[in-house]
Structure formats: structure tokens, C-alpha cells
TrEMBL record:
Residues 1-18 form the signal peptide. It comes from Riccia sorocarpa. It is found in: Cell membrane; Membrane. GO terms for biological process: defense response; post-embryonic development; response to other organism. This is Leucine-rich repeat-containing N-terminal plant-type domain-containing protein. Keywords: Cell membrane, Glycoprotein, Leucine-rich repeat, Membrane, Receptor, Repeat, Signal, Transmembrane, Transmembrane helix. GO terms for cellular component: plasma membrane. The keyword Electron transport does not apply.
């Protein structure tokens, strides 16, 4: 009996555990036994400790009935065997764990008698495992199938670990499972169908399991007690199974962010009348939204956003009595919508659809709505005044909605409104004064609209809570209200690109929390208020593209929190103070370009350790490049071109290891290119053009493997192009023209498969055109002109589908033009003059599509159609260098070669051609009358050939033709009128049988056509019309005329003017023309707001080129600036 009593006591100790030192805080503290001899506890079937009274040791004494005792012995022997099975299953589960860095399962060892004390384990009254909870335990491994042997398991939470592999199907054996959470694990495979066997399951959570594939098994409908199902961020496909509708107890249907989950929303979803939350967002569901939602009277949150749903919005959705949040955004919903009366809806999101018909007036019925978002769709219409009835509205967001009309004054009734965002619409008119009542407004965004009028002082004064104001890119006028100084909470003030005038109020500097201030692109005058120095919270100051002037040192001293300073393209002047620069200790980006700053570049820039971007280009800085810039370890962009910098390029710049752009062009730098710059391994653009650099191109530049722009043109460099440059395989633009480089082109250009622009003109290169260029399939510009190249043009088999400019002029090339040139579909400019090419021209040119593009100046997208590169374009008697070529410019120059045969009649197919020069060859036969079909032709030179016959009237009378030269041929007959009156006698001389005006040879009755009306004696016989070389679009404000006497200086001066107008003033149109033998016209359209830059630049050019520059300035009806008589 004593032995039996020991067995029973030990068994009871296994079942009833003394838990005075309970290790898991998550366990509910149980009720203590009334027997104070020892505290005992028991568990229910779900693994929770029972709250009934525990059992004391006296429960198991010798007084126990023998029969009953025997029964209990048998029972506990069975329990002991089952518990051993649970222990074995847990240890098998542990074997699947290969990494446990947090030691979560360190106590799971066989020798420890009671596994109910293992971390994360809960047991029921019988001592069986009823719960495993190890979320976020950093476990790595697989889920062992042994978990299915835990037949009393009711709670399993293994979320936020690193479990891999499939979900074991043996989980279906855990028939008592109530909660299953495997979220945030890298599990793979599919959801096992055996999940459907879990009849007691209430909560199923499988969120953020990106490796989960397959479909949601239809067997899941067997979990009829489900209340919450959450499946998100998986790769599941298919649709929602209809069997899920059998789960009539479902409260939360959360199947979201599964990008492959498609299909339609089951119509039967309306049968789940217990639903409270439905999240089906972020899937790929299609079809229309089901109707008859009015049966879901408990639904309070419905999110169907970010799918591919179409059709209209069911009006029943707005009638759901409990609905608080409705999100239908980012679908393909269309049509208009109407709102039913609703007192519960608080948040409505309709963003990113195809809804139209405007905001309905019935919006007024959303009495409780706090958040209303409808952005990113072309709603159209105006803002209804009924919006002002939404007295609880706190946030209204409707950007990019195609709204028009004006802002209704009723918006002033929205006293709870804190956020109003209406940017990027077409809203016009003034900001209504009633909006001054929006005293709770914290953010107002009306940017990128057509608002006009002035901002009144009272309007601004009422926005006492305003923190963020974005009202940029409108047509607001007048002065900036001084009452802005009262908005002490203001952090962001964006008012750029309006028509504001006057000075910046001093009160702006009194805003203690101001962080971002952007006022550029206005007509503001004066300087920066000195009070700005008090804005110590300022992190970004942007006044770019303005006519503000004066010095900046006083106003900007001590802004220690400043990160971005943008004063570019303005009229600021004076020198930069070393102390002011040094005070910007947190500055990251500095834009002082396109101003009038003078003096040396402050060395204190080198102390700004956070500096990332430094733009100082297009100023009048002099002196040397500070060596201290080499201390800027975070510098990525350094631009100082178009200044007056002298001296050598400092080798210290090689310490700026993050530098990607180094732009020092158009200065007066001398010396050689430092080979140490090869340490700038991140460098992408290297521009040392238009300086006085000497020496050779360093071999070490080949170490710049990320380099894609190399501009060294207009220097005095000698030697050859080093072959090491071929290591820069990402090269896109190589400009080495106007140097003294020599030797053959042995560089392996074939390594540059992304090369789009290669310009080597005006050097002394010899040998042939490199055949490896055939690998440069992305070429747009190829200019090898003005060298000493010999041989034939290689017969490339490459399809240069992007080639727009080919210039091989002024070399010693010979042979025939290969067929690939006549197959360049994008070709705009072909310059082959000054060689010894032979053969005849093709009879037709069907593939030269680039010369058949009739550009529409009103719609031409300059950014997409412009090639920003330098190219020499020969015209009658001179060569002009252009910084950009656009689709409106086309030219063929084959002059001074050995071509023969007749002129092809098929030239008329190039109906967008503007310049055609075939002079100095051996062409014979007649001038094709079909040339008169090229209605864009502005210059035609056929002189010095062997042409015969009449001059076709169709050609001579072309309206845009400004230059016609047929001198020194064998032409005969009368010069056609009235076209002949436009051209000088020199255009027709050397043709013995030509007669009529402007030649002195009178036509006889036998060889002349009937006499036309007499030509006016007032015609200037020495007049030569302009050669219009169109490079841009016309908007018209201000024109300039240059009269230059030296052709050599003319080229340099024209180059300066073109660069300035294209890159600095950003003009829309430039027309370069030639008068007589030495006069050049440059007509540029300049906006009146840029006139100060024009005036300043003209003064600088006069100092450089002297009195040979004269101006004739005119002002259009839209302009108000007159800069004549400078």
C-alpha cells in the first residue's frame, strides 16, 4: 500500500503543479486553494488555468477509498503516457529549429520533468499541451509535422519568426485549435486543405508570408466558427472561395495586399451579416462592386482599394447605417456618383479612379464625414458650395482632379477644417475672403492652379493655426501681405512662380518656426530682408529665377540650420563674405548660379562638411579655384563654368571621392589636366571645355570607369586620345573638338555602346574613319570634320536608328557615299563638304525621315526634340557653331566635292529641308522644278557646277528662300520675277546666257519670256536677304542685332551669344542670319523678366569685343522693358 501511495502522489504532482514561481508573465494568475498546506492549480481543455479551488496534498491520503484509488491510478497512468507523447512531440518540434539566438527554447530539454514549465507552453487541467506561444522569438527552422500530435492544442502563435518550408498538413489533426497565427514568416508552399478540418477555429492569421502560393483552399469553408481570417502579403492566386460564405459567424474578413489574388468579389458576401470589417484592398480583383450591401448592417470598415474594380459605385454603400470608413481608391471605377444621407460615415476615400461628373451636390448629406479624399482622377466640374455644409470636415484632399471654376466662399464655414489640398487643378479666380474664418487650418495647398488676384492682409491674418501654405505656380499678383508675420506657427511658405511684386516684407523674418521659404519666379524687387537672419529654424531658402538683387551676406549670416540655399538665375551681386559662408554649418546644397557675383570664391566653402552640391556657374568670379574645396568629402556636384577663374585646376579636388559632376568649362584655367583626378572613381561628367589648358590628355582618366561625359573642347591639348579611355565603357558624350590633337583614331570606340555624341572636329587627326564606330548604335551626333582623315567612309552595316547629325566635312575623304548614310531615318544634318567624294546622288531618298518632319512650333516639345551639343553648320561664306539643334533645323551640304550627274528630282521628298548646298561639284542637267515643293527651303546653293537650262520660277519664288546662289553654271534664259528681286547679282553671275534683273544683261526678244512689270527703282541692288537658321520656338519679347566686322571674331562672339541665350536666358527662339560679307544677325526672343541679365551680359561682351557691337532693341506689345541705347 505504501508503494501504491507513492505512485499516486507522484502522479498527482504531475497533474497538479505547484506554480508559486510561474515563469510566464502572460499566464493568468489562478485562484489559490483554500488549503494552505500547498497551492495547487489545474488547467481547462483550452490550456488555461482553472479558476476553481485547487487541490491540496490532503486530497491524496490513505483515507482514499481503495476502489476509487485504483480507478485514479489507472487514469493517471494513461495520462502519464499521453503526456509523454506531448513531450516527445515538443522535442520533435524543437529538432526542426536550427537557430535560436534568443534562447527561447533553451529550457526545452528531456531531463526536465515538467514541460508545462517550458517557455511558451501552456497546459490544460490534464497536463496536456494546449498552447504554444513563441511570437517574435527569432527562431529559424521548419515547422515539424509532429505538431499535429498535440491533440489538445487550442492556441498556436509562431508569428514574426523565420520559419521556412511548408505549413504542415498535420495541423488539421489539431481538432481543438481555436487560434492559429503563423504571420510574418518566410514560409513557402500552399495553405493545406486540411485547415478546413479545424471546426473549432475562430482566428486564422497568415499575414506577411510572401512565399505562400497556390489558392485559398475551398475547404476553408469548413471552419464555420471563424470570426477572423487574415491573409495578406502573399503570392496567393485565384479568387475568394465561395465556400467562405458558409462562415456565417465571420466578423473580420481581412484578405489584402495579395497582388496575384484576382477574381470577382463574391456576390454572396452580403450573406455574411455579422461582418464588421472587410479589407480586400491591394489585390487584383476585377469586376463590379456587388450591390445590396444594405444587408450588412454591422459593417463599419470597408476597404476595396487598389484593385482593378470597374463600373459605378453602388449607392447602397452610402446607406450602411454603421459604416464609418469607406475606401474605394485606386481602382477603375467610372461614372458619376451620388450620396445618400449618412450619419455614420467619417472617412471616404475615392482616389485614383476614373470618376467624372464632378463632386455631387449630394455630398452635403455626409453629415459626419471628417476625411474626404478624391485625388488623382479627372472629376471635372467646380467645387460645389454644398461642401460648406460638412461642418465636421477636417481634411479635404482633391489634387489632380481636373477641377475648375472658383473657390466657393462657403468653404469658410468649415471651422473644423485642418487640411485643404487642392493643387494641380484649373481652379481660377481669387482666394475668397470668407476663407479667413478657417482659424483651425493647419495646411493649405492651392499650388499649380490658375488663381489670380491679391492675397489680402485680413485673409492671411485669419489663418492663425496655419503651419503649411503652398500657393505656388498660380497667377497671384500684388504684394506679399505683411500679416504673414503674425502666423507664428508657419513652417512652410511656398509662393514661387506667381506674379507677386514689391519687396519681400521684413515681417517674414519674424517667423520663429519657419523652415522652408520659396518665393522665386515672381517679380519681386529689392534684396533679401535682413530679418531673414533671425529665421534660425530655416532649412531651405529658395529665391531662384527672380529679379531680386543686392548683396546677400548680411541677410544670410548665421543661418546655422540652413540645408538648401537656391538663389540661382537672379540678379544678386557683390562678393561673398567668408564669415557668412562659414556660418552655414549644416548646408547641403548651394545654388548661386546665373547671378552677378564677383571676386574670389570664398575658401570657407571648404569648411562646410555636409556640402553635397555647389553651383556657382555663370557669374563673374575671378581668382583661382580654392584648394580648400578638396576638403569636401561629401561633395557630389561642383559647377563653376562661365566665370573668370584663372590658374591651374587644383589637385586637391581628387580628394572629393563622392564627386560625380565636375564642371569648370568656359573659364581661363591654364596648365595641364591633373592625373590625380583619376581617383574620382564616381565621376560621371568632366567638363573642362573652353579654357586655356595645355599638355596631353592623361592616361589615368581611363580609370574613371563611371565617366559618361568628357568635354575638353576649345583648349590647347596636344598628343593623341589615350587608348585607356576605352575603359570608360559607359561613355555617352565625348567632345574633344578645337584642340591640337593628332594621330590616328586608334581608340576602341566600340566599347562605348551607349555613346550618343562624338565631336572631334578642328583637330589634326589622320588615318581613316574608325570602323569600330559600327558598334556605337546609339549615336546621335558624329562630327569628325576639319581634320586630315583619309580613305573611304566605312560601309557600316549597323542600323544607326538614332543618328541625327553626321559631319565629316573638310577632310581628305574620297570614294562614294555609302548606302547606310542615305538610310538614316532620323538624320537632320548631313555635312560632307570639302572632301573628294565622287559618284552620283540617289534618285530618291525614301528613308531620310528626319528631313520630312514638319515641326509645329506651337506644340514642339523642346526637351524631347533638342540635341544639346556643339556642331559646326557651314553657311554661305562662314561656319557657325551651334549649341543645340532641334527638329526644326535640317541641312544637307555636299559642296566642294567631285559629284557628277543630274540633280535628283526626288530631292522634293525631303520637304522639311531648310538648307541645301551642292556647290563646287560637277552636277549637270537642269535644275529640277520639283525643288519648289520644298516649302521650308531657306538656303539653296547650286553655284560652281555645270547646270544648264532655265531657273525654274517655282524655285526662285519660294517664299522662305532667303539665299539662292546659282552662279558659275551654264544656265540661260530670263531670271524669274518677282523672286529674282530678292537676290543680288552675284547669285547669278558666271552664266553667260542668263539675262534680266538683277544682272546688267538685258534679255532680247528672241531669248526672253514676255516682259513683266518694271521693277521699282527703290530696290537696293546690293541687298542680300537674311539666312534664317531657325533654332527654337517663338514667343516674342525682345530682339538684338549684332554687326561684326571680323569673321574670325564673329565666330567666337556668335558662339558666346548662342550659349548665353540658350543656357542662361533660356530663350525659346534664336534666329541667326548673315548680311553682306561681314554682318551677322542674331534675333533672340527674351522674356522681359530676363532683361537685366541681357543688359548685364551685353555690357560684358562690349568690354571684351569693343565697339563693333551695336544693338537695335525692340519691345513687343507684351513687354515693358526697353534696353536700347545701352
Amino acid at each position: 500500500m505504501r508503494i501504491l501511495m507513492i505512485t499516486i502522489t507522484l502522479s498527482s504532482l504531475v497533474i497538479c503543479h505547484a506554480l508559486e514561481n510561474e515563469p510566464e508573465q502572460s499566464r493568468q494568475k489562478p485562484r489559490k486553494s483554500t488549503d494552505s498546506s500547498r497551492t495547487m492549480y489545474a488547467y481547462d481543455l483550452h490550456g488555461e488555468l482553472l479558476n476553481h479551488e485547487g487541490y491540496s496534498r490532503s486530497t491524496w491520503t490513505s483515507r482514499t477509498e481503495p476502489a476509487a484509488l485504483k480507478s485514479k491510478v489507472v487514469h493517471h497512468v494513461l495520462v502519464s503516457d499521453s503526456r509523454n507523447g506531448d513531450r516527445k512531440s515538443l522535442l520533435e518540434f524543437k529538432k526542426g529549429i536550427r537557430n535560436d539566438p534568443a534562447g527561447a527554447m533553451a529550457g526545452w530539454i528531456f531531463t526536465r520533468a515538467d514541460f508545462c514549465f517550458w517557455k511558451g507552453i501552456r497546459c490544460n487541467a490534464a497536463g496536456r499541451v494546449s498552447g504554444i506561444s513563441l511570437p517574435g522569438s527569432q527562431l529559424t527552422g521548419v515547422l515539424s509535422p509532429s505538431i499535429g500530435n498535440l491533440s489538445f492544442l487550442s492556441f498556436l502563435n509562431l508569428s514574426s519568426n523565420n520559419f521556412e518550408g511548408p505549413i504542415p498538413s498535420s495541423l488539421g489533426l489539431c481538432q481543438r485549435l481555436v487560434t492559429l497565427d503563423l504571420s510574418s514568416n518566410p514560409l513557402t508552399g500552399s495553405i493545406p486543405s486540411q485547415i478546413g478540418s479545424l471546426r473549432e477555429l475562430i482566428t486564422l492569421q497568415l499575414r506577411n508570408i510572401t512565399g505562400l502560393q497556390g489558392e485559398i483552399p475551398p475547404e476553408i469553408g469548413g471552419c464555420t466558427k471563424l470570426k477572423t481570417i487574415e491573409i495578406s502579403s502573399t503570392q496567393l492566386s485565384g479568387g475568394l472561395p465561395h465556400s467562405l460564405m458558409r462562415c456565417t459567424n465571420l466578423l473580420n474578413l481581412l484578405v489584402y495586399s495579395n497582388s496575384n489574388l484576382s477574381g470577382m468579389i463574391p456576390v454572396t458576401i452580403i450573406t455574411l451579416r455579422s461582418l464588421e470589417v472587410v479589407w480586400l484592398n491591394g489585390n487584383s480583383m476585377v469586376g463590379e462592386i456587388p450591390i445590396r450591401w444594405n444587408q450588412l448592417i454591422n459593417l463599419n470598415n470597408l476597404d476595396l482599394s487598389s484593385n482593378q474594380l470597374n463600373g459605378t459605385i453602388p449607392p447602397e454603400l452610402f446607406g450602411l447605417p454603421s459604416l464609418r470608413i469607406l475606401d474605394l481608391g485606386n481602382n477603375r471605377l467610372n461614372g458619376s456618383f451620388e450620396v445618400h444621407s449618412n450619419n455614420s460615415l467619417e472617412e471616404l476615400y475615392l482616389n485614383g479612379n476614373n470618376l467624372g461628373g464632378g463632386i455631387p451636390k449630394s455630398i452635403r448629406y455626409l453629415h459626419s464625414v471628417r476625411i474626404l479624399q478624391m485625388m488623382w482622377q479627372d472629376l471635372g466640374g467646380s467645387i460645389p458650395k454644398e461642401l460648406g455644409d460638412l461642418v465636421n470636415l477636417e481634411s479635404f484632399n482633391c489634387l489632380f482632379c481636373g477641377l475648375n471654376g472658383s473657390l466657393p466662399g462657403s468653404l469658410g464655414s468649415l471651422r473644423n477644417l485642418t487640411i485643404l489640398r487642392l493643387p494641380n487643378n484649373q481652379i481660377s479666380g481669387p482666394v475668397p475672403p470668407e476663407m479667413s474664418r478657417l482659424s483651425s487650418l493647419q495646411e493649405l495647398n492651392l499650388g499649380h492652379n490658375n488663381l489670380s488676384g491679391e492675397l489680402g492682409e485680413e485673409l492671411i491674418r485669419g489663418w492663425t493655426s496655419l503651419e503649411y501654405l503652398y500657393i505656388d505656380t498660380n497667377h497671384l499678383s500684388g504684394r506679399i501681405p505683411r500679416s504673414f508675420g503674425m502666423l507664428k506657427s508657419l513652417k512652410h511658405l511656398y509662393m514661387h512662380f506667381n506674379k507677386l511684386d514689391g519687396e519681400i516684407p521684413q515681417e517674414i523674418g519674424g517667423l520663429p518656426q519657419l523652415e522652408l521659404l520659396s518665393l522665386g519666379g515672381n517679380n519681386l524687387t529689392g534684396g533679401i530682408p535682413t530679418t531673414i537672419a533671425n529665421s534660425t529654424s530655416l532649412t531651405e531658402l529658395s529665391l531662384y529665377n527672380s529679379i531680386l538683387n543686392g548683396e546677400i551676406n548680411t541677410a544670410l549670416f548665421g543661418l546655422t540650420n540652413l540645408k538648401v540655399l537656391n538663389l540661382g538665375t537672379s540678379s544678386f551681386e557683390g562678393t561673398l563674405d567668408e564669415r557668412t559662408i562659414a556660418s552655414w554649418i549644416n548646408i547641403e546644397e548651394v545654388y548661386l548660379d546665373n547671378n552677378r557675383f564677383t571676386g574670389p570664391i570664398p575658401r570657407s566653402f571648404g569648411s562646410l562638411k555636409h556640402l553635397d552640391t555647389l553651383f556657382l556657374h555663370v557669374n563673374a568670379f575671378n581668382g583661382t579655384v580654392p584648394t580648400e574645396l578638396g576638403l569636401l568629402s561629401n561633395l557630389t556636384l561642383l559647377s563653376m563654368y562661365e566665370n573668370r577663374l584663372t590658374g591651374e585646376i587644383p589637385t586637391s579636388l581628387s580628394n572629393c571621392s563622392k564627386l560625380t559632376y565636375l564642371l569648370l568649362g568656359t573659364n581661363e584655367l591654364s596648365g595641364s589636366i591633373p592625373p590625380e583626378l583619376s581617383r574620382l572613381t564616381n565621376l560621371q561628367s568632366l567638363h573642362f571645355d573652353a579654357n586655356e589648358l595645355t599638355g596631353t590628355i592623361p592616361l589615368e582618366l581611363g580609370m574613371l570607369s563611371n565617366l559618361y561625359d568628357l568635354w575638353l573642347f576649345k583648349n590647347h591639348l596636344t598628343g593623341t586620345i589615350p587608348n585607356t579611355i576605352s575603359n570608360c565603357t559607359g561613355m555617352k558624350s565625348m567632345h574633344l573638338s578645337n584642340n591640337n590633337l593628332t594621330g590616328e583614331l586608334t581608340l576602341d570606340f566600340g566599347q562605348f555602346q551607349n555613346l550618343s555624341s562624338l565631336s572631334l572636329y578642328d583637330n589634326g587627326f589622320t588615318g581613316g574613319v574608325p570602323e569600330v564606330l559600327s558598334n556605337c548604335t546609339q549615336l546621335k551626333l558624329l562630327d569628325l570634320s576639319m581634320n586630315q582623315l583619309t580613305g573611304n567612309i566605312p560601309d557600316f552595316k549597323t542600323n544607326f536608328s538614332s543618328m541625327r547629325i553626321v559631319s565629316l566635312a573638310s577632310n581628305n575623304l574620297e570614294g562614294q557615299i555609302p548606302g547606310w548614310i542615305w538610310s538614316l531615318q532620323q538624320l537632320q544634318v548631313l555635312l560632307l563638304s570639302g572632301n573628294t567624294f565622287t559618284g552620283i546622288l540617289p534618285t530618291s531618298f525614301p528613308l531620310l525621315g528626319g528631313m520630312r518632319v514638319m515641326s509645329n512650333n506651337a506644340t514642339l516639345d523642346r526637351s524631347q526634340s533638342t540635341l544639346y551639343d556643339l556642331v559646326l553648320v557651314p553657311t554661305k561664306g562662314t561656319q557657325l557653331e551651334y549649341a543645340e539643334i532641334i527638329l526644326a533645323f535640317t541641312s544637307i551640304d555636299l559642296s566642294n566635292n567631285e559629284f557628277h550627274g543630274e540633280l535628283p528630282a526626288g530631292l522634293d521628298s525631303l520637304y522639311a529641308l531648310r538648307l541645301l548646298n551642292l556647290s563646287g561639284n560637277h552636277f549637270s542637267g537642269p535644275i529640277p522644278a520639283t525643288l519648289g515643293k520644298i516649302t521650308t527651303l531657306e538656303s539653296l546653293d547650286l553655284s560652281n557646277n555645270e547646270l544648264a537650262g532655265d531657273i525654274p520660277a517655282e524655285v526662285a519664288n519660294l517664299a522662305p528662300l532667303a539665299v539662292l546662289d546659282v552662279a558659275h553654271n551654264n544656265l540661260s534664259g530670263k531670271i524669274p520675277l518677282p523672286g529674282g528681286t530678292k537676290f543680288p547679282a552675284s547669285s547669278f553671275e558666271g552664266n553667260l546666257n542668263l539675262c534680266g534683273y538683277p544682272l546688267n544683261q538685258t534679255c532680247t526678244t528672241g531669248n526672253a519670256a514676255p516682259k513683266t512689270s518694271a521693277v521699282s527703282e527703290d530696290v537696293d541692288k546690293g541687298f542680300i536677304s537674311t539666312t534664317a537658321l531657325l533654332i527654337g520656338l517663338a514667343t516674342g519679347f525682345l530682339g538684338i542685332l549684332l554687326v561684326i566686322w571680323s569673321s574670325k571674331r564673329a565666330l567666337r562672339l556668335v558662339d558666346n551669344f548662342l550659349w548665353f541665350f540658350l543656357r542662361v536666358l533660356r530663350v525659346d527662339s534664336i534666329v541667326v542670319s548673315r548680311h553682306f560679307a561681314s554682318d551677322i544677325d542674331i534675333d533672340a526672343d527674351v522674356h522681359a523678366s530676363r532683361a537685366p541679365h541681357y543688359v548685364d551680359y551685353l555690357k560684358r561682351l562690349r568690354k571684351r569685343f569693343g565697339p563693333e557691337i551695336t544693338t537695335e532693341d525692340s519691345v513687343s506689345d507684351q513687354g515693358t522693358i526697353n534696353v536700347s541705347h545701352i
